[in-house]
Amino acid sequence: MTTLAQPVIQVRDLTMAYGDVDVLRGVDLEIHRGEIFALLGPNGAGKTTTVEILEGFRRRSGGQVDVLGVDPERGDDAWRARTGLVLQSWRDHRRWRVAELLRHFATYYPDPRDPAELLDVVGLTAQADQQVDRLSGGQRRRLDVALGIVGRPELLFLDEPTTGFDPEARHEFHVLVERLARDEGVTVLLTTHDLAEAERLADQIAMLVSGRIRACGAPSELARQAAAQAEVRWTAADGTPRRERTADASRLVWELHRDAHGPIADLEVRRPTLEDTYLHMVHREDGDTDAGTDETANGEAQAA
Amino acid sequence: MRETHLTDGTESVLARRRLRAGLQRGGIELRHLLRNPKEMFGHLTNVVVALVIAAYVSGDVPGTPTPMAHLVIAGFAAYLLFQIGLINLPQLLVTEREEGVLLRMRATPGGITAYLVAKCLLVVAMAAGTLALLLGATALLVDGPLPRGPGGWLTLLWVTTLGLLAVVPLGAAIGAVLPNPREALALIMLPTMALLVTSGAVFPITALPVAVQQVAAVFPLKWMAQGLRSALLPDAARAAEVAGSWELPKVALVLTAWAVLGFLLAIPLLRRAARRESGSRMSARHRKAEQSGALAA
């Protein structure tokens, strides 16, 4: 919707090497205002490195990075005030009381949210006077979210935000993140292992495998890019269950009907899920040699 | 012209906001410290130990009419200041780094400045509180020493200030390099205890070999103790000093040298520690902590 506006995050040919090991081998990303962008990938694919470079916590080896119009390596306090951060392993300020902590962090920003209102938004009003280390895991994470958005950031980094949440807390969290993006135009960069979460929340999903973006697009486009196949299941005339994978489910079903003498028992077409796409990507990568990866990348570029 | 004016205004607004945040933070941390029974117990124990020692030490400083207990209390005061800078502060910094406080402050605009302001405030309050409690309690209960006249109070003030400047930056530098809170205590406790024994801060050192005395004289503890003795003991007691005088210029010189060294070390090391903070490093430390916890259990 904002094709004219400059992207909030623009990354070109980002590389990162630790000694001889190439962790990122030319990553390109473009994330626009108000977008919820999910970065997926197996452990060790370079997700954390990418995000920490964008957060300004790590120096890159090469490439161009622009976050909110600034190179994060040169991000000053004014830039910092426009970003918010929610990490999964924070256990700081245990002795502080919830409201006390939020009120304190509000003082660092030029135009903070009202701490009391914010507690209400994240559902911690009842815990306002409680000590931080008495909070449950989900409450603690919601407090981290409140601390992440108290300064009204334009860009919010969420690192595995719902690990350890029960389904209800997860749902509430998703509603909160969607509200931030839709109503306030906050751009969200989410890293997660929870594919259902990515599919539910994200406008755009990028899959990072072995230091490269293997696929990027809306959740529905990804399957096509990845050339993952649909699965067709039915029960044959002799009563045996059958299943077949195909890129063209419609054709297979038509063929089945043409050959059959009547309705086909238990016919079911399963579109590739994000999980299928994801596993397909990761497995294909595992089978590749280093020389082969480039070909795959080219093939994908042509397919896309 | 107008633009320059605007920028300057913004800068000073930012600086004021950081200072205010730091002072507020220091105040809150101090309140938490005062309300934490475990930590308060630790600090109170120190004072009780000093009281007990002072009550049991009898006799006078050799060759003077000053009670030996006064010399011990002055030395203990120096040791408690030393401990705040070189044990309590590094311990606090390492623990907070592991919990992610440093990363949180780094992710907050002006956070690192506010963090340092708060820590300075906390250390000064701890030092002043400890000294007041120790000297007040010993004066009331075991007839302990207090400075005589304005000159004595002035000496107490400058020796304490310079002593803190000598140990606090050094402690911050140590806190920046120590790996984790579990190893930290072991790594700093041993040298500190060795110094306590060899410096003659609490117990007169004439019994120790000259070589040991000379090594101990390099470190600030001996000079902090000597400076506090000059503030708290009557002038006649200087006859018992190794040099036969309080050597105040030398006290000032050595403590200043340590302060300079401490700042030279602390600034780059703290900057490096803050720069290295990131989410993945914090997670890695947590995993390691859990592993060692699991092994110990």
What does this structure look like?
The complex is a heterodimer of chains A (304) and B (297). Chain A has helices at 47-54, 77-80, 98-106, 115-121, 137-149, 167-184, 195-201, 219-226, 249-259, 274-287, 290-303; strands spanning 9-18, 21-31, 36-40, 62-67, 83-86, 155-159, 187-191, 204-209, 212-217, 230-235, 241-246, 265-270. Chain A has 304 residues and is α/β, with parallel strands linked by helices. In chain A, the strands form three sheets. Chain A has a six-stranded mixed β-sheet, with helices on both faces. In chain A, helix 6 links the parallel strand 6 and strand 7 (187-191). In chain A, helix 8 packs parallel to helix 10. The longest helix of chain A is centred in the middle third of the chain and has 18 residues, at 167-184. In chain B, helix 2 runs parallel beside helix 5, helix 3 (68-99) packs antiparallel against helix 7 (181-198) and helix 6 packs parallel to helix 10. The A-B interface holds A 48-49, 51-52, 55, 57-58, 77-78, 80-81, 83, 85, 87-96, 100, 104-105, 107-109, 147, 151, 159 and B 14, 17-18, 20-21, 24-25, 28, 32, 36, 96, 99-101, 103-104, 106-111, 114, 277-280, 282-283, 286.
